[in-house]
Specification:
175 residues, two-stranded antiparallel sheet, GMP Synthetase, Chain A, domain 3, 20% strand, 51% helix, elongated
Length: 175
């Protein structure tokens, strides 16, 4: 028994050529390949978007960790003052910090900031140096001083000096 598969396939292709459907299949194949190629070029931007989302999430988590560190530091500082039995602090920041990029200071044009660019073409981007810490703008402390108003004033002055805030941005209250 002879294998007629090759003959049958040739007959099917000839029938499709006569009907014009062969061109449609070839055209569909070309369109499919083109869509695959376009999709492969779109993936890097989707990856960049996902990376930016992860960066924002990491930045926020780092901010929360920094905020907690400053809060505990303030509480420990308050507890180190004689007469303070307990203290709880709340800290207020201005934003999450800012991205820092390298700038060209030798450009001579002081009106316009020129960033240092690395890479070329579509890979060109400003040289990223890191993140600045957010600015501390306020401190609130609730403490137990045994009713001594002088200690509350000392704490406010201490926190104001230690964190470079005006006294109007530091509030110390008794339980």
């Amino acid at each position: 028994m002879a294998d007629n598969t090759g003959i049958e396939a040739a007959q099917v292709v000839n029938h499709m050529k006569k009907k014009g459907s062969f061109k449609i299949i070839i055209f569909g194949f070309i369109i499919g390949v083109a869509l695959l190629l376009i999709g492969s070029f779109a993936l890097p931007s989707e990856k960049k978007s996902a990376e930016k989302t992860d960066d924002v999430k990491n930045t926020y988590e780092e901010f929360l960790a920094y905020k907690e560190t400053v809060r505990r530091e303030i509480e420990e500082l308050c507890m180190s003052v004689s007469g303070v039995k307990s203290a709880e602090a709340v800290v207020f920041f201005d934003g999450l910090g800012e991205s820092i990029y390298a700038t060209n200071t030798q450009s001579g044009n002081s009106d316009k900031i020129e960033y240092v660019i690395i890479g070329s073409g579509s890979n060109a981007h400003a040289l990223y140096l890191g993140e600045s810490l957010p600015a501390l703008v306020g401190i609130g402390v609730v403490c137990d001083t045994g009713g001594n108003a002088g200690i509350k004033n000392e704490l406010a002055a201490l926190l104001s000096a230690a964190y470079g805030l005006p006294l109007t941005r530091v509030r110390v209250v008794e339980y």
